[in-house]
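User: Structure please.
Assistant: Input sequence and predicted structure:
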Amino acid sequence: MTDRVPDHLDLPELTLRGLVLGALITLVFTASNVYLGLKVGLTFASSIPAAVAYCWPRG
C-alpha cells in the first residue's frame, strides 16, 4: 500500500458534505421504512442498507 495520508495532515472528521449526505440518507430510508410499515405492515432496520449504500464503491 503506497498511497496514504501523511501524518502531518490534519483532516476534519465532521464536514458539511458528511452532514448533508447523512441527513439525505436518513430522510430517504426513514420515509421508505414508514411507507412499508404503513402499506405492508412490515418494517426493517434501515441502518444496514443505508451503510451499504454509503459505502458502495465509487467509480
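The mean pLDDT is 78.
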